């Protein structure tokens, strides 16, 4: 035996032992720990080796194919001995003394006073036959009956019937394949059915001894697993049985209890009122005070204190414990449902909260209810960490409705069409450049909810949602809206957005791509341009020229913007027009900084075609959509920004502008009969463009048209409407100053008219 390492030996000792072991191994001086001695003779050993080599030379598939064909022809058959067929024992034992069937004997004690003895005996037998046995009520399945009988173990193997043998045989072969596999398998089954159990065992042992163990293992693995049968019916059959049930004919609990002797039934002697209370009809309550706790429907609307009746439409609004007679759910009940382990309940609760916040942001609930913003914020932020698609979408939607005002964003986007939107407002409560960690989350949520949201790592969460979860388009849009609101906040929040690793890079690569997927069957928003993503980059760039220059150079976003404007695919649908409008607003901002003038020469023929198209198809009337008006307004504002930077670049546009667009749309303004503020983007942007031209060139025709506009009935009607709005806004300004208005928007979220809305309305005067 070779010495093993012992405790206390050093590394040098182990290396020395290793060298000795390798040396002895090379010189073949090591003796094995055990030796195997075979009892076989040399001839038997040689024969087994030859047989093993021969088996290994054949392929397994060939042996499988020839398993049942290569039958040796020189088989020495034994003497045929007729076996004694043992008569199977009878399963039923009869009493030989009484006979079968048992003879019925007359009762000797019967008196002949009441009719004949035979008649009395037959009457007695009929009564006995009508008495059911105890086992009659037990359903018996013939297939499940197994009769066991004590037999001799030596003879039990031979008493296997053909029927029981065939039950265990497979219906199809798991080894053979091909067109003749069924017929071959059937022949094999017929042979097996005619063989006794001893013959089957002998043939089985013979096959196992002849075949290679690897082939046997392979054949066993080919055998299909048994299908587990169940007694449960399919769901379709269960539902069908429920549909066939006539509910109207069923007895109610009250009808059952009216039956006689019902009070003496088992456990029915004591009436438990608390267990039967849920079965009684709901009483419609009456309002006793002017104030009551608000209850909401699933759309977020406040419901009246009570409703006259409960029908199929409002039945789902009564599934709550407290105030069972009132419809709807309170905020506290919705908060409790949002923590439910049932996904459907959780989604319904969060969506209802999101709808309440959406209506509250429009000012509908001003002076009616006080929405607990801080409490709702923490409930939503907790649910936002759930990766379930339905819960995630509802949570993102609720958070977006909490901090994002769609009315404000619409007004700010409209200002761009009036030529007043290059300077964007900063919606921040304070100008602190770092987070004050001495203030806890609850206090910070009461003071600045946007900064509290940034503290909860919402940027990291949004980055994970975009890169890993990859939700549908709706969730992505909500994420972009949240980032837009954060980008409008203080410099501290803006820097956190820019410092979040790969957030802006992933947004641009996924939603402002240079090469986009045009597959109409694709439902994924990834690889397609997204309007909200372009708007986010525009708002970040509007904070400073250095930021705009950094973004355009680092991410090469201008190539994508030029592609979207020049591609006819986007000009042929509504979403494409919105995207092109946002792209031209972004280019107007960059031209204002003097950054993208080189790309204007590339876009010049495309912009000429767009302007010519709008001249022929866009009119200043109520039938033209706001999307088309916004598209042509963004084009005119873009041209006016180019004129201010380099007048020579606009020269190819002058004939179309001066001779066609200016006379047409100015005359339509003079003849305007109806007022719509959004439709005035077209004449306002046109006047901005003419104003920029007049700084470089005095055109008498422009002055003449301006005088005609001032003296027209359309202009008078517009100014009268604006005067009414002016008086209303001045009365509003007397009641609240801008500081209070800004605090209302950022902190309490209760004011219907926010600062940006007021600025947009004042700018239209």
From TrEMBL:
Residues 149-182 are annotated as: Disordered. Residues 182-226 form the RPAP1 N-terminal domain. InterPro entries: ARM-type_fold (IPR016024), RPAP1/Rba50 (IPR039913), RPAP1_C (IPR013929), RPAP1_N (IPR013930). Coiled coil: none annotated. Residues 293-358 form the RPAP1 C-terminal domain. GO terms for biological process: transcription by RNA polymerase II. Belongs to the RPAP1 family. PANTHER family: RNA POLYMERASE II-ASSOCIATED PROTEIN 1. This is RNA polymerase II-associated protein 1. It comes from Psylliodes chrysocephalus.
């Amino acid at each position: 035996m070779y010495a093993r390492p012992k405790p206390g030996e050093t590394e040098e000792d182990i290396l020395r032992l290793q060298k000795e072991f390798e040396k002895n191994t090379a010189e073949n001086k090591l003796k094995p720990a055990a030796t195997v001695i075979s009892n076989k003779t040399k001839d038997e050993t040689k024969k087994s080796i030859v047989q093993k080599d021969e088996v290994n030379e054949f392929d397994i598939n060939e042996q499988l194919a020839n398993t049942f064909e290569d039958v040796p022809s020189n088989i020495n058959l034994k003497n045929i001995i007729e076996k004694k067929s043992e008569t199977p024992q009878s399963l039923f034992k009869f009493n030989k003394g009484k006979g079968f069937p048992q003879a019925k004997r007359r009762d000797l004690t019967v008196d002949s006073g009441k009719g004949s003895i035979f008649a009395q005996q037959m009457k007695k037998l009929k009564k006995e036959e009508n008495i059911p046995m105890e086992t009659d009520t037990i359903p018996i399945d013939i297939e499940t009956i197994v009769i066991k009988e004590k037999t001799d173990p030596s003879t039990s193997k031979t008493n296997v019937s053909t029927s029981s043998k065939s039950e265990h045989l497979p219906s199809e072969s798991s080894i053979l394949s091909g067109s003749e596999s069924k017929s071959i398998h059937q022949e094999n089954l017929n042979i097996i059915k005619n063989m006794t159990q001893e013959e089957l065992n002998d043939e089985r042992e013979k096959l196992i001894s002849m075949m290679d163990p690897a082939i046997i293992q392979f054949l066993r693995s080919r055998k299909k697993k048994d299908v587990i049968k169940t007694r449960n019916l399919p769901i379709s059959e269960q539902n069908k049985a429920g549909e066939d049930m006539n509910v109207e004919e069923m007895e109610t609990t009250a009808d059952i209890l009216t039956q006689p002797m019902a009070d003496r039934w088992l456990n029915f002697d004591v009436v438990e009122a608390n267990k039967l209370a849920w079965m009684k009809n709901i009483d419609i309550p009456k309002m006793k005070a002017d104030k009551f706790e608000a209850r909401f429907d699933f759309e977020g609307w406040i419901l009246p204190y009570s409703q006259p009746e409960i029908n199929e439409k409002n039945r789902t609004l009564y599934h709550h414990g407290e105030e069972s007679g009132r419809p709807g759910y309170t905020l506290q009940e919705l908060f409790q449902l949002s923590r439910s382990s049932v996904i459907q309940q959780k989604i319904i609760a969060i969506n209802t909260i999101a709808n309440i916040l959406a209506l509250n942001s429009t000012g509908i609930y001003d002076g009616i209810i006080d929405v607990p913003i801080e409490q709702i914020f923490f409930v939503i932020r907790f649910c936002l960490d759930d990766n379930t698609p339905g819960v995630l979408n509802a949570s993102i939607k609720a958070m977006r409705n909490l901090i994002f005002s769609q009315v404000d964003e619409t007004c700010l986007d409209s200002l761009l069409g009036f030529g007043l939107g290059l300077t964007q407002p900063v919606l921040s409560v304070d100008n602190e450049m770092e987070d004050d960690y001495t203030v806890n989350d609850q206090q910070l949520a009461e003071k600045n909810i946007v900064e509290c949201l940034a503290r909860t790592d919402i940027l990291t969460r949004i980055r994970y949602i975009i890169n890993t979860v990859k939700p549908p388009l709706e969730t992505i849009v909500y994420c972009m809206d949240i980032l837009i609101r954060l980008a409008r906040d203080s410099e501290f929040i803006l820097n956190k957005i820019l410092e979040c690793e790969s957030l802006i890079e992933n947004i641009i690569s996924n939603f402002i791509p240079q090469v986009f997927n045009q597959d109409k069957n694709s439902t994924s928003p990834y690889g397609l341009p997204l309007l909200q993503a372009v708007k986010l980059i525009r708002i970040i760039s509007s904070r400073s020229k250095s930021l705009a220059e950094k973004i355009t150079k680092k991410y090469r976003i201008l190539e994508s913007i030029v592609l979207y404007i020049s591609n006819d695919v986007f000009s042929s649908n509504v979403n494409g027009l919105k995207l092109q409008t946002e792209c031209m607003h972004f280019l107007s901002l960059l031209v204002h900084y003097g950054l993208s003038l080189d790309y204007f020469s590339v876009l010049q023929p495309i912009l000429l075609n767009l302007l010519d198209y709008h001249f022929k198809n866009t009119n200043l009337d109520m039938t033209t959509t706001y999307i088309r008006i916004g598209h042509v307004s963004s084009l005119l504002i873009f041209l006016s920004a180019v004129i201010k930077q380099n007048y020579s670049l606009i020269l190819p546009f002058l004939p179309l502008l001066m001779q066609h667009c200016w006379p047409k749309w100015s005359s339509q303004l003079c003849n305007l009969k109806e007022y719509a503020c959004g439709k005035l983007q077209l004449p306002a942007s046109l006047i901005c463009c003419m104003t920029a031209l007049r700084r470089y060139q005095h055109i008498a025709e422009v002055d003449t048209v301006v005088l005609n506009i001032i003296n027209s009935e359309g202009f008078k009607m517009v100014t009268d409407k604006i005067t009414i709005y002016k008086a209303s806004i001045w009365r509003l300004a007397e009641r609240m100053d801008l500081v209070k208005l800004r605090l209302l928007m950022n902190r309490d979220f209760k004011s219907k008219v926010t600062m940006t809305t007021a600025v947009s309305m004042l700018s239209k005067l």
